[in-house]
Amino acid sequence: MNQLPEYLLKLGGLHDARLVAMNWHVESQVVEFVVDDIYANFLGLPEYPGRQSGVIRLEGVSHVEFAVEASQELKLFELLPAEDHADEVVAKFSPGGRVRIRYAAAIYPSSLI
């Protein structure tokens, strides 16, 4: 069962996490989001457990829509399940852009929240 949507919602869509890398392995059908802190959404709040970098790995990727502004630094505005497809996520970036990905499975760090 795909629990990535619940995971992302629980972590506030990884809001304000700095994107360290986004790796798209076309032949192996894998996309990875490497972020500096999966808890960035909670920074300054009592429930913030401390900084933890992490990788959200999407496997069985069959569709990618990519439109991102070039920038020295990208932050995730949010990484959330697509409202219209349970097997897709939409990443929105600051200063601008978005990526929409259809996937079959996901691997992600365990959460303390």
Keywords, separated by commas or semicolons:
mainly beta; 113 residues; N-terminal domain of MutM-like DNA repair proteins; 8 strands; single chain
What would you note in describing this structure?
The chain is mainly β and 113 residues long. The chain has one domain: N-terminal domain of MutM-like DNA repair proteins (Alpha-Beta Barrel). Helices cover 6% and strands 44% of the residues. Strands 4-7-6-5-1-2-3-8 form an eight-stranded antiparallel β-sheet. It is globular. The two termini are 20 Å apart.
Helix segment tally: 1
Beta-strand content:
35-45%
Distance between the termini: 20 Å
Percent range of helical residues? under 10%
List the helices and strands and how they pair.
Blueprint: H1 4-10, E1 18-25, E2 30-35, E3 54-59, E4 63-68, E5 74-81, E6 88-94, E7 97-102, E8 105-107
Antiparallel strand pairs: 1-2, 1-5, 2-3, 3-8, 4-7, 5-6, 6-7
How is this structure best summarized?
The chain has 113 residues and is mostly beta strands. The protein contains 1 helix and 8 strands, in the order H-E-E-E-E-E-E-E-E.
